[in-house]
């Protein structure tokens, strides 16, 4: 999940080496003075190493690449979601959040020096080539991923439209790696799709949270009301499976679309005073119709905010398998030279005050898909808890949970999760969890 902020710092990271020798510590007393002195000793150590590499390395190094590598090393030591973006990568990120960009259409993270697929985007080249959530990419066009930064790997996957790239895929950590050829294309993310299920159920699929998502949701609801008739709609299925997340403000607006009042999400930073709360405004766009939200092991971040808010308020029943468990907020901080810092600045909490970091959202109704024999054991995501260096869950018990299956059948007739949601809305199946009792939700 990304929270966009105005420029906060200019040249802080890039200016460290140049200013270390001439900056003086402020007048401090006791332990505070000792801590500052120690910090500057460490920065001077970095400056010494930097100068030694520049003067004595066997070949003339590129100063800017040295600094960028040092920054990347510092950030990747924090958690899997903090990173540095150069000017091109920053521009690409801005374009991507608008919902149109060039590439393969794949959300990845770095784990144990390999690229792990969080989720392919619907109808993207990656999705059409059969790439699955949880796949590990070990090589790009024959070049091993080990040794690359996440940004270097992403840059290598980008390229001119209609040009191919071969990904070496290890699925489920088992068997031999296989080569998958993917042809690059312009990725136009229609983040919201909708259709009728029969004559009385509205189905809305949200693939990720871009700047267009809430508007797309509103248009879909209006169209379904027109196609089915508001009085005839029995309820809605909101499909967030394999949705890797996106913009915080869009997750808040989507949640607000189904709530009349109450807290949607809160974020808490390092300082006890650094707390922000986001609340719903009056007006449920569905008129209070029953809602079932589908999640799985590929549902992460912003999609977990929506599921958590509707679950805590007992506004929707969550069905599927446990979600990914990414409960942190990244702030994009533009830097001098048009690059940017993607820094984890807060954890988010659902309305009941729970952190889903490295735990995920547990559905009230757990439904497993019938996974084909050739994919069994290979359809599981490790979740946030499986990412090296992930933030710990701040709860008292410190318990964590791995991911779950991210398999979704291509044919909706074989989609066990979707079919059970339909049966619940039609009343042909019963569950104590559906419809939920709003009175049992968190206080508004």
Fold topology:
Blueprint: E1 2-4, H1 16-19, H2 30-56, H3 63-76, E2 83-85, H4 87-97, E3 100-103, E4 106-111, E5 114-120, H5 125-128, E6 136-140, E7 143-144, H6 150-157, E8 164-170, E9 178-183, E10 185-188, E11 192-197, E12 201-206, H7 213-228, E13 235-239, H8 248-256, E14 263-268, E15 275-279, E16 291-295, H9 302-312, E17 317-320, E18 328-334, E19 340-349, E20 365-366, H10 416-426
Parallel strand pairs: 1-18, 12-13, 13-16, 16-17, 17-20
Antiparallel strand pairs: 2-19, 3-10, 4-5, 5-6, 6-7, 6-8, 8-9, 11-12, 14-15, 14-19, 18-19
Helix pairs in contact: 8-9
Query: Could you spell the SSE succession in H and E letters?
Result: EHHHEHEEEHEEHEEEEEHEHEEEHEEEEH
Classify the secondary structure makeup into a structural class.
Answer: alpha+beta
Shape: globular
Please give the CATH architecture of the largest domain. Alpha-Beta Complex
CATH class of the largest domain: Alpha Beta
What's the number of domains? 3
The low-confidence runs, each spanning 5 or more residues with pLDDT under 50, are 1-27
Span of the ends, CA to CA: 25 Å
Please tell me the overall pLDDT. Answer: 88
> What assembly state would you assign to the polypeptide chains in this entry?
single chain
Strand content: 15-25%
- How many β strands by DSSP? 20
- Number of helices, counting only DSSP H or I runs of 4 residues or more: 10
The main β sheet shows up as:
6 strands, mixed
Helix content: 25-40%
Radius of gyration: 23 Å
């Amino acid at each position: 999940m990304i929270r966009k902020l105005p420029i906060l710092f200019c040249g802080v990271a890039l200016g460290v080496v140049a200013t270390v020798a001439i900056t003086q510590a402020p007048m401090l007393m006791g332990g505070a003075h000792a801590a500052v002195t120690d910090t500057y000793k460490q920065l001077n150590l970095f400056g010494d190493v930097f100068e030694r590499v520049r003067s004595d390395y066997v070949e003339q190094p590129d100063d800017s690449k040295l600094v960028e590598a040092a920054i990347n090393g510092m950030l990747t030591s924090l958690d899997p979601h903090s990173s540095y973006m150069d000017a091109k990568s920053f521009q690409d990120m801005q374009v991507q959040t608008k919902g149109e960009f060039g590439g393969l259409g794949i959300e990845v993270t770095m784990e144990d020096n390999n690229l792990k697929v969080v989720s392919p985007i619907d109808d993207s080249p990656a999705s059409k080539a059969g790439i699955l959530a949880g796949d590990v990419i070990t090589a790009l066009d024959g070049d091993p991923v080990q040794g690359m930064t996440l940004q270097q790997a992403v840059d290598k996957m980008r390229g001119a439209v209609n040009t191919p790239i071969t990904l070496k895929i290890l699925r489920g950590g088992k068997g031999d790696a296989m080569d998958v050829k993917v042809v690059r294309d312009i990725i136009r993310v229609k983040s919201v799709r909708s259709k009728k299920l029969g004559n009385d159920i509205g189905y809305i699929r949200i693939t990720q949270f871009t700047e267009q998502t809430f508007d797309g949701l509103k248009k879909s609801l209006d169209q379904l009301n027109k196609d089915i008739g508001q009085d005839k709609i029995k309820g809605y299925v909101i499909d967030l499976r394999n949705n890797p997340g996106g913009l915080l403000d869009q997750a808040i607006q989507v949640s607000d679309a189904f709530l009349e009042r109450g807290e949607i999400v809160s974020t808490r930073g390092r300082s006890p005073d650094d707390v922000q709360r986001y609340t719903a405004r009056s007006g449920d766009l569905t008129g209070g119709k029953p809602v079932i939200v589908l999640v799985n092991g590929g549902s992460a971040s912003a999609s977990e905010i929506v599921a958590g808010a509707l679950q805590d308020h007992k506004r929707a029943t969550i069905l599927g398998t446990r979600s990914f468990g990414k409960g942190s907020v990244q702030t994009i901080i533009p830097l001098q030279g048009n690059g940017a810092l993607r820094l984890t600045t807060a954890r988010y909490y659902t309305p009941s005050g729970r952190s889903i970091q490295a735990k995920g959202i547990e559905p009230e109704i757990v439904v497993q898909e019938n996974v084909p024999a050739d994919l069994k054991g290979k359809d599981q995501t490790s979740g946030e808890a499986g990412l090296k260096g992930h933030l710990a869950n701040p709860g008292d018990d410190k318990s964590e949970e791995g991911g779950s299956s991210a398999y979704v059948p291509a044919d909706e007739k074989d989609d066990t999760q979707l079919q059970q949601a339909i049966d619940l809305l039609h009343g042909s199946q019963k569950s104590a969890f559906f419809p939920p009792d709003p009175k049992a939700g968190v206080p508004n």
